[in-house]
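Progress report, Aim 2. The chain analyzed during this reporting quarter is listed below.
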Amino acid sequence: MSGLLHKGMELRTRSLPEHVQRPNRQASHGGRYTLSSPPPTCKRSPLPLIAALVASAALLFLAAFLVVGAFDDSSALFDETPGTAQTSTPADLSTSDGANATERSESDTADTETLSTDSSAIESPISAILEILTIEQKIGQRFITWVDGTTVTAETGRMIRDGFVGGVILYPWNIDSSDQVRTLIDDLQAVAARNKPAIDLFVSVDREGGRVSAVRLDDTVRLPAAHHWAQHDDEEFVSAAAYLASRELRSLGFNMNFAPVLDLYAEPDSTIIGDRSFGADPETVGRYGIRYIDSAERAGVIPVVKHFPGHGVTTVDSHGALPVVDKDTDMLRNGALRPFVRAIEHGAPAIMTAHILFTALDADYPATLSGPILKDLLRDELGFDGVVVSDGMSMRALSAHYSEREMIKRMFHAEVDIMLAHNEYDVLELIDIALDLYREGEITREQIESGARRVLELKHERNLLPD
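Predicted structure tokens for the chain:
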């Protein structure tokens, strides 16, 4: 995760249900005592009076001590009050239908978990939210989906409400004007705000510059492709361009951008990567990528670097077919992987996968579906603990070779955190497929929750979780 934003993990109980709130201890209030001044006299010796005052003060001190102790003892009574965190509750009860909330399938009942009495079990807002999300909601948070039209339709509202999706992606057909897209995004977030719990959406877009830019409005800057940024041989230029692009996105309401491209311009090509890349030199691409990440973060937009482990080594467009790369691992490590290594070391918050079959790394599955590439290489070897986002699921590199069920199953196993249903698919159907895989034992609760946790951690960093 990025180190630029504070990862405060203090539990804020006011947004949680009663059974996970910690008991409030009754404050102890000692009485305030004053001594009346004795009537003035000049005929008696002061010694008896002083002795009486000392004795009275001692008695009053003892009384105050006993009163305070009684209040302290009484506070212990609240430790066992019903309705505190000691009360167990099912972890995955649905909140959508109060009358039927306890009616669950046999498989769901077997998976019921109770809250631990150990306070470490609720150590953060993330843990608290995971405790109250249903298994369907946890799955929903792991999808970003396309939406139809320029306003929030009933179908879009249903995807956010019933699917509990983690985010949306907007395309040119969703964007007519700056005011219109601001209203659309506000309305999308307003639907999410009515969910329980109210978790904001990732609102994502492709805005690289040049031929890949979903935002093409008269009152926004039209930037050239990244390759032309690099021609200035000036890191400050890259920083400024990235900040400008990101700041405009943030002003429209976007909080995530699928950029920068860290693929190399290794093969002359105008179909897929080409001038979308900063260049052919891994060191240069890595330096410019870091500058882009920093500027996007400063502007308040999550940068998603792409396409791991490198798309520039092929001229085949994965939108239409599955590219196959037969280069050996040394060539990949010394070339295509190096910009991503630099970005990971710098704290990149999110990485998008490539739909490419790298036979030297995994001869059976393309990177998006590959455990050896995403778990063994990206997570374990390179140490990336941020959010992994798939490229679009309906791209022919995947959809022509794998069913939706197989894709989802493989992505859960490979530790893809967010699946991008970028068009064509009905995200509610994809969520149902994932739920069936879970109920049939083909994906586990741990696989669902580990990805949901990473998604929520990133949302927590960007203030997208409820207070």
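The CA atoms of residues 19 and 84 lie 5 Å apart. The two ends are 21 Å apart (CA to CA). These observations will guide the mutagenesis work planned for the next reporting period.
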